[in-house]
Amino acid sequence: MMKDNADFIRHRGDSPFISGFRLMDVILENGISIRAAVAGQGEPLVLLHGHPQNHVTWRKIAPSLAQHFTVIMPDIRGYGDSDKPASDDNHRSYSKREMAKDIILLMARLGFHDGFALVGHDRGARVGHRLALDYPQQVKRSIFIDIAPTATMYALTDKTFATRYFWWFFLIQPSPMPEKMIAADPAFFLRKHIDGQLKTPGATEPEVFAEYLRCYQNADTLRAICEDYRASATLDLQDDEADKHLRISTPLLVLWGEKGTVGQLYDVIATWQEKALDVRGKAMPCGHSPQEECPDALLGAIMPFLT
Asked: How far apart are CA 212 and CA 56, in angstroms?
């Protein structure tokens, strides 16, 4: 059961995008403030968004999930309205290990100490991978959406992948080059990024795009996003190499868009069978973001696994 700790939780009212959800800023033990949207009752379920979105990406499935679970949707550090801490040359502040620790501390602040299920999309799934490795007693089961393991994708880079996922190589360039280039026209960059990944016209409504853009126009957000990708290309790979003998021990469901890059370039299930002991998965009729492109199909795929 969620506990309301007034010393560390600041309520911010109802979500303007997701019916029934309330917004809160939660001050973690490490001093980071995390914005989260919360609703529902029952076992806790954490939903982690990717880039360039925030928790609003779950708007089409969250109300249905809240009928069965207590749904917690954070903006991961650096994104949305969560804190964007300073970083340094080794990018540790934006490593997936630090982002994963935020989620554990968040759940503790909310009074969930007995574990939770997890759904992660894109960057959120990469945080989820580290969560499942570092906290196997807390993460009861995981769903990763439209990713192959980071180290695998870098190791198998070819012209096709580098062309489609150019931002993996653009955003990791030394500061402040990518930050300044995006800041020159963030709306253009954001629109091209989303339209290039989603294969369902109108899946991101104008008001939702405006919400994503509101965050993307923040210079600290652009810095944090680049640091996230810089960490993935350096420190995260080092952490993965150090833990290459480990496997995710709890059940894992992997889903991917059949029209997207990940599904077309990789045998997604096989890549995760190298990283986890219990893997199952299927393709979704969409591009990169089934939660926005085919929400009913996504709910049909995840509910049997979660329940």
From this structure: 8
- Does the annotation count 122 as an active-site position? yes
**Per-residue confidence of the chain (307 residues) as pLDDT tens digits?**
566 677 899 999 999 999 999 999 999 999 999 999 999 999 999 999 999 999 999 999 999 999 999 999 999 999 999 999 999 999 999 999 999 999 999 999 999 999 999 999 999 999 999 999 999 999 999 999 999 999 999 999 999 999 999 999 999 999 999 999 999 999 999 999 999 999 999 999 999 999 999 999 999 999 999 999 999 999 999 999 999 999 999 999 999 999 999 999 999 999 999 999 999 999 999 999 999 999 999 999 999 999 9
- Do 152 and 263 form a contact (C-beta atoms < 8 A)? no
Distances (CA, A) of 87 to 30, 199, 218, 226, 236: 15, 35, 16, 11, 15
CA atoms within 13 A on the CB side of 115: 12
Q: What's the predicted TM-score (pTM) here?
A: 0.97
- Is residue 78 within 8 A of residue 94, CB to CB? The reply is yes
In angstroms, rounded to a whole number, what is the distance separating the alpha carbons of residues 223 and 15? 26
Q: How far apart are CA 225 and CA 77, in angstroms?
A: 9
Q: Per the residue annotation, which of 122, 146, 236, 240 is the catalytic one?
A: 122
For the question of residue 240 being annotated catalytic, the response is no
Residue from 91, 121, 129, 288 carrying the catalytic annotation? 288
Q: Which domains does the chain have, with CATH numbers?
A: 9-305 (3.40.50.1820)
